[in-house]
Amino acid sequence: MDGEPSTSATSNANNWRFAQCFGDKGEVDDITEADIISTVEFDHTGDYLATGDKGGRVVLFERNDSKKGCEYKFYTEFQSHEPEFDYLKSLEIEEKINRIKWCKRQNSAHFLLSTNDKTIKLWKVFEKSLKVVSENNLTDGTRPVPPPTISTNLRLPRMTQHDTIVAAVPRKVYANAHAYHINSISINSDGETYISADDLRVNLWNLNISDQSFNIVDIKPANMEELTEVITAAEFHPIHCNLFMYSSSKGTIKLADMRESALCDRHAKLFEEEDDPSNRSFFSEIISSISDVKFSKDGRYILSRDYLSLKIWDVNMDRGPVKTIQIHDHLRGKLCDLYENDCIFDKFECTWSGDGQSVLTGSYQNYFHIYDVNTTNDIVLQADKSAFKAKKIGAGAKPGMKNGAKPGVKDGVNIDAMDFNKKILHGSWHPRENTIAIAATNNLFIFAVDR
Amino acid sequence: MADDLYRSALKARMARLPDLPPWETGARAEGEGDGDVPGTGGEGEDEEMDEEEDDEDGVGELPSLNTLPRLTHRTRTPVDYSPLSAAGYFEQSLSLSLPSRGLDTRLYYTPPLVRAGGRGTVIVAHHGAGSGALSFALFAREVRVQSEGECGVLAADCRGHGKTASTTGSTGDLLLSQSDLSSDLLALLTTLFPSPGEAPSLVLVGHSMGASVVLGALPQLLKEGYGVTGVAVLDVVEGTALEALPHMRSLLLTRPKGFPSLEAAIAWHVTNNTLRNLQSARISVPALFVRNPTAAEGAGVQWVWRAPLEKTEPFWEGWFTSLSSRFLSAPSARLLLLAGTERLDKPLMIGQMQGKFQLVVLPGVGHHLQEDDPAAAARVVLEFWRRNERVGVGVKKVGER
């Protein structure tokens, strides 16, 4: 993007290798629904990795620095959300964790926000040392001791460190602010506020105040029958604390400035690409719906994912994207079937690399793509059992690579046999290295670049 | 699910899309225009019906969007309201003279197929007030088709209705008390089937007022030795009918006095939902009208009502009073067939709980249920007949003394 195409290490497919897989590596057919991972997020240092699942649990992994390579180990797990029942509407509220966002580290404890459809919680995760009484008046730690007879021999009990556990405590619960399902949360660069977005509204919270929030965007129509557009994602600008953006199901991204007015319904900038009229079909509107939108780390670019493509926008230019990358354009002919099996509504996430030179997004059959932003070179990898078989053999060629073309295989993908039940929707990129965490149904895959 | 709101909004929008011609799915079950006859397709359609065909133009290459809501097809061909002949629905049309009753009765008859040694069965259908025998035309054909000819159907225009003429003119036409009508029916049946021992077994079906007539004739029929398998009452409940009587007069006042043409008369019956089945209306409505003797040539009201219901008001109460108790005490099998919204009155409700009769409710039909859904009505009546007919010798049938 800055002129010279860089030959980053990430653009060479051979460098990516499978590192780890967490989870029950059994067949897809009999996985427990509650184990399906619904969100993945590295923290700001990359040393900790959080995953949320459909059962409302948050699992944290910690980087194992003692090992030379990239390795994560299980750190702690806690039940973040429980299933609830909305008695007023007679609806179940799923405990599925939709998003996790880490707060910037201020002390030895970790703070993270996790949200389900209706409630956001601020969790404090910290190491708690358990102390145990080691000496008292009746024992000296190993054997009983006769109680003292003279008052001057009375001693205070002494505590020693026994164990350290990792404890997770909900510090704040931000509830009852959303009538519709929360799809994103984003913490401001000021570290004090954050936004939560549901289908029709975006609310601004202060991390310290859990009983109040401000509504800053409201696209609910007066007559719900006229509903045509919903908000699909929202994010704060990484540097400017007054800017945030939100994407919609109509394929628009709106950048809003909170300094302008209290209610940011009027966008400061609108990023929308005109549909090519020749390509318009019955499904054009559905596939133009943006499923995820992310600022680059430097805040100069916006990455958006719609059903078939990734688009990179320059924040300063709203005329059109600077790059459009087709992910699985061969699905364009199958939109009818994908509509019938509901896959057309799948929400794929997209992620920037830490250096802003690559982008990551998922596809079907557990394939995921890493694109070099400058050369749009495409690396296709697969997060499934074949990945760790390849590791054992130590083979250099990975299945599904562009270079290894097989007959009947297009772009390394056999279209007709595609399994639409296996999809990579969630992923996260380490902020400082080329390490990625991919959620494949109930398994967590870690891929890294050879150092 | 998180995107339920978007998806439900999307589906709501798709449901509001304008009507499109149906997909070529092969079966032409979709897209019934107003007036398509449910259950059409039997043999023997003598008349070339000009019914609404689906626009089966080639829709071309369309994706198989089976999940889209089915879009109904509005017919764009003009609706045909012209009168239809009853030929092909009934086998015979007879005029029977009943001197003892002073009547020249027009009746329509489809004889049953009599098996060797058997007597056959005839469904005797009596129409309601202001109606005519041809209201059973479609029903008769359905019965013949569904019973494969085993069951015959007999329907007559009663006194003062349809093509039946009274030898004493208008005075005779207005002898419409229940006892008179029952005696008329009795005379008709004894004339048609003089020997009770050789007569076919009968299933009596009465629609609205006809139920009262049929129930009145039943005891005498049994006394004379005719075999009656059962009696079916179509869409009349004593309590509801009596309650509705005060409103009948004002309702009749809002009816047009006549029509310029039979097409207009048929169209009126269909568009104000009195009759929901266009094909049946085209057959039965013309018999409800006679030429207006006082009309100017070629203009004005050419056709007036054959049986002006206003004049029958003195008899209304007599038709419906004690209908429920007579039904419940009728000495034969009993069937009550109601259109969707009827409610039972107290004696019928108690009777139903005691299992004294079979109750069937037909959905989607109006008061003239044998016209609106003749196939369903025929099916129910035939089933009722079969269940009560095939009883071994020596076993008393329900209600038999």
Automatic annotation (TrEMBL), chain A:
Q: Which GO terms describe its molecular function?
A: protein phosphatase regulator activity
Protein keywords: Phosphoprotein, Repeat, WD repeat
Q: Which organism is it from?
A: Calocera viscosa (strain TUFC12733)
Q: Name one GO biological process term.
A: negative regulation of G2/M transition of mitotic cell cycle
Q: Which InterPro entries match?
A: PP2A_PR55, PP2A_PR55_CS, WD40/YVTN_repeat-like_dom_sf, WD40_repeat_dom_sf, WD40_rpt
What is the protein name stated in its UniProt record? Protein phosphatase PP2A regulatory subunit B
Q: What does this protein do?
A: Phosphatase 2A affects a variety of biological processes in the cell such as transcription, cell cycle progression and cellular morphogenesis, and provides an initial identification of critical substrates for this phosphatase. The regulatory subunit may direct the catalytic subunit to distinct, albeit overlapping, subsets of substrates.
Q: Which Pfam families match?
A: WD40
The entry's family comment says:
Belongs to the phosphatase 2A regulatory subunit B family.
User: Which superkingdom?
Assistant: Eukaryota
TrEMBL record, chain B:
According to the UniProt record, what class of enzyme is this? hydrolase
GO terms for MF: protein methylesterase activity
Q: Which UniProt keywords apply?
A: Hydrolase, Serine esterase
SUPFAM superfamilies given in the database record: alpha/beta-Hydrolases (SSF53474)
Keyword Hydrolase attached: yes
Residue ranges of every copy of the AB hydrolase-1 domain listed in the record? 123-379
Q: What positions does UniProt annotate as the active site of this protein?
A: 208, 235, 367
What ranges does the record list as Acidic residues composition bias? 43-59
Could you tell me which InterPro entries the record lists for this protein?
AB_hydrolase_1, AB_hydrolase_fold, PPase_methylesterase_euk
Query: Where is the region Disordered?
Result: 17-74
Signal sequence span is none
Enzyme Commission number(s) from the entry: 3.1.1.-
Reaction(s) this enzyme catalyzes, per UniProt: [phosphatase 2A protein]-C-terminal L-leucine methyl ester + H2O = [phosphatase 2A protein]-C-terminal L-leucine + methanol + H(+)
Which residue spans traverse the membrane? none
Q: Does the keyword Hydrolase apply?
A: yes
Matches recorded under Pfam families: Abhydrolase_6 (PF12697)
Assigned protein family = Belongs to the AB hydrolase superfamily.
According to its UniProt entry, what is the function of this protein? Demethylates proteins that have been reversibly carboxymethylated.
Q: What is this protein called?
A: Protein phosphatase methylesterase 1
Upper lineage ranks? Eukaryota, Fungi, Dikarya, Basidiomycota, Agaricomycotina
